Records
---
Amino acid sequence: MSKILVTGGAGFIGSNFVRMLLQGGDHRIVNLDALTYAGNLENLQDVERNERYQFVRGDIADAKAMDAVFAEHRPDVVVHFAAESHVDRSVLDATAFVRTNVIGTQVLLDKSRQYKTQRFVHVSTDEVYGSLGAWGYFTEETPIQSNSPYSSSKAASDLMVRAAVHTHHMDCVITRCSNNYGPFQFPEKLIPLMIANALEGKKLPVYGDGKNVRDWIYVTDHCEGIREAMANGKAGEVYNFGGNAERENIFVVKEILRLLGKGEDLIHYVKDRPGHDRRYAMDSTKAKATLGWTPRHTFEEGLRQTVDWYVQNKAWWERVRSGAYQTYYQQQYGGR
Ligand code: NAD
Ligand code: TYD
């Protein structure tokens, strides 16, 4: 039985990953999360009493606090999700992105080396490769050409991981994935925002001409890829994961309205995001060939399941929107 330190496990993808690991295998999980606005322990309410699960509140950029966490838990593996993750917030102020994504990653690498963690899995994004024109795909060999403060901070963290492999011979694996969607995604990202707004009869803000393309992947497909990379990835390698589902934003928004039986009059074109990347598309050949991974969900199935989840879990996203979710930690953990 190994001990896995999952950072950012109270966020969207991290909480789905923690749940997946607890459903099979015999790993013990320590979920380390600072509980920023994006961290929500209600995402893991169903597993919080599992004896293989433990939550620790902590800031990955705080080296002293991380030393205490590593000294106490001595993880065999670190799976690193914790990050500032929203591009629009990085346009407004990049400070927290540099602190968490760059410095926080470096602190975790230092502590992993000091405490002899066996493997470090760094969860990154296709956005580090920059933007594509109408044709082509990102492979693991595509040069890093990040464009937003978010993606540039992730690119910097990827390069610090690369440096740890080459300089200190650490056993690190980098995963880069396309846009995720599914249960427990914070309703500031495109798909949950549009579902929640449509359910409340609010306008759906579509940036620019709505023709930017993202390669959508259902969150548990991404989590399976990370699990495979953790178990069978080769030290120093990068693995791309994509959903085989390139769609224009306006198509996604119209599909959501159709699934909800709402009219397209809710669509509201707004000013474009500054520096808005036009198209992302992933070539996942390497992960398929070497990890035996493949995404299980088509976009149509995944989107239907996601829309159903937000319809059935209105209380979850209403508590996020009202801010009530932020009292959960105090109530359940007494502020420890
Ligand atoms: P999220 O914003 O939902 O969750 C981030 C989590 O990190 C939150 O629980 C937050 O509290 C925590 N956190 C933030 N700062 C912290 C700090 N200083 N110390 C400790 N914890 C901190 O993000 P997500 O969408 O779940 O993304 C998780 C990871 O996956 C990120 O590294 C992101 O770059 C990467 N990724 C996301 C996507 C996507 O589509 N969402 C795609 C590819 C890669
Ligand atoms: P987002 O979910 O923020 O992910 P990312 O920027 O990391 O790809 O946005 C997905 C796409 O949807 C992106 O092209 C921007 C667009 N978008 C809108 O058109 N309106 C919105 O309100 C949001 C949040 C995003």
---
Amino acid sequence: MSLYLGLDSSTQSLSAMVIDTATRAIVFEASVNFSEAFPEYGTQSGTLRSDDPAVVHAPPLMWVEALEAVLLQVKDGVDVSQIKAVSGSGQQHGSVYLKSFPELDASQSLKSQLAGCFSRETSPIWMDSSTSKQCEEIREALGGMQATTEATGSNTFERFTGPQIRKFYQEEPEAYAETKHIALVSSFMASLLTGKPVGIDPGDGAGMNLMDIQAKQWHASALEATAEDLGSKLPPLSPSHTVAGNIASYFVEKYGFDPGCKSIVWTGDNPSSVIGLGLVAPGMTAISLGTSDTLFGSMGKCATDPNGEGHVFGSPAGDYMTLICFKNGSLAREAILNQYGLGWEGFSKSLDETPAGNHGALMLPWFEPEIVPHVLTPGVHRQNLDESDAAANCRAVVEAQMMSMKLHSEWMGEAPTKIFVTGGASANEQILQVMADVFDCPVHRFESTNSAALGAALRAAHAAGAGEWSDLIHGFTDPVAGSEILPKHEHAAIYRDKVKAYQVFEQAMR
Ligand code: ADP
Ligand code: XUL
């Protein structure tokens, strides 16, 4: 047996996946849904909301509790002593602020040991869009949009960690001064497993507006533009394959891990999915239909988006990856589903019953402030679309999302010739047909919709020396045989024109 554990701490849940590289099989999967398992934290879909829709936080102590809960399931499901290495991925950009990091003691729970350690009780997460002022200040200090994008791989974005840290520094200077360690969700969880603060990898580090994208080191001017003394509070940037140490004795004693089990640096969920989808060579494109929709690809050289909408992150496979994040992904599809009282079956039926192009109906589904295009005031806009027509609204939301993804990814250069798709909504064939038609290329599905956890398990194996990427991914990241969804050419022709109308509507309303 050659077991490796991958964890994914996402917005709504913490998932675990154990793979066996000897038999090339996923041998165990488990998941803990934050809001269901820990209602006492008062989260909705894993998030804390306030009266201001721009402010979205989550309690880090809930993630700590979830780690114990998911490891209990792993312990019941596999022989934990056989796990050779563990790694993970986290929702990107979210940050955790600690006054101190405790020496872990197996006779007490993680929760009780961490409870007094936070200098900020709640963590701003990627859905927060309350830092426009700080974005502008940092962008100006770095010489404007283009200079910021070239320096850090992205323009400043409200959810990125640098602007979030600056807001905390400005609004709660005493708590900021008390903060000894600032972690990302990924590096915080990795620190728990290792029993000490560990580094941030260039995949997740690039989502902070603080990392020099070429050198993959902290960017001195960006640190200075963000907050006083920031360099001393951040851990080092560490390559994604870094062995942070052996797993902390806490987990050996409490769950039965082998004392020699390696604890590997974590990355962001999107960089992790790049591995979990097998995008280890440049030029491959994938779309994840999760809480948000993200479009990403692997890239040999670092090329940034001149429009400042897309991002460049480090890829755990070595080079770079691009990423464009559309916040109103499943969030928007679910809003329509709920508005018309449908289930996913009814939603899919509506897509079947309505024609490609939807008789020219258009929707801009900005239920939440949108990241791409940049729209801070939420609003749902309709054109040639009757709000009382449930089926047409189902088609309109999906067409809008696919057309927006096509339009805002054109800067990447070449149109994709094949798309790999993952995330919860990739189970929906009707949605994938619209994707194939709008992009006019085949779409391939995967067995596991949890590519981030799979990527984490594969990264654990890679960092522990189990093999080269091309060998390791074999048998794990092959698309489901016969799952290919082909574009219908008459539909593709309709969307070629409709994308232009969509662009005009989008520009008029943003
Ligand atoms: P994340 O990892 O971002 O938390 P997931 O990738 O697990 O999210 O996706 C979860 C989402 O998938 C759910 O919120 C739901 O909207 C969506 N989903 C699940 N099943 C279907 C389906 N059959 N059709 C469309 N969407 C679905
Ligand atoms: C990426 C982003 C989201 C989160 C979701 O930039 O903000 O995809 O990573 O977990």
